[in-house]
Amino acid sequence: MSRWLTSLRSALRWALTSVMIGCIKTYQYTLSPLLGPRCRFWPSCSSYTIEAIQVHGPIKGGWMAVKRIVKCHPGSAGGMDPVPGGRSEQLCREDEDASSSCCSDHHSR
C-alpha cells in the first residue's frame, strides 16, 4: 500500500506541475507578447515561475513564484534574481561580470 501511495503522490505532483507550467507557457505565448516586456527582473517572472516549479516542485516553487511576483511592481528596482538551486543561478555564477550584482545580492536576502 505504501508503494501505491508513493506512486499516486508522484502522479499528482507530475500532473500539478504539468498544469501549472502549461498555464505559464500559455501566458508566455499569448498574453505576454501583447503586453510587451514588463518584468523588472531577470529571469522574467514567468520564466522564474517555471524554473522554480521544475526545481522545487509545485508547492514550494509556486510559493517562491508568488513571492517573486508580489515584489515585481513599478516601485521595485528589479535586477537579477535567480532561482536558488536552478539553472539561472548557475548561469549567474558562471558570468563573472554579473556575479557580484546577482548572486551575492540574491543570497543576502
UniProtKB/TrEMBL annotation:
Keywords: Cell membrane, Membrane. Residues 1-13 form the PH domain. It comes from the Bacteria. Pfam families: YidD. GO terms for cellular component: plasma membrane. It is found in: Cell membrane. Residues 75-109 are annotated as: Disordered. It is a peripheral membrane protein. Belongs to the UPF0161 family. Could be involved in insertion of integral membrane proteins into the membrane. This is Putative membrane protein insertion efficiency factor. It comes from Vreelandella maris.
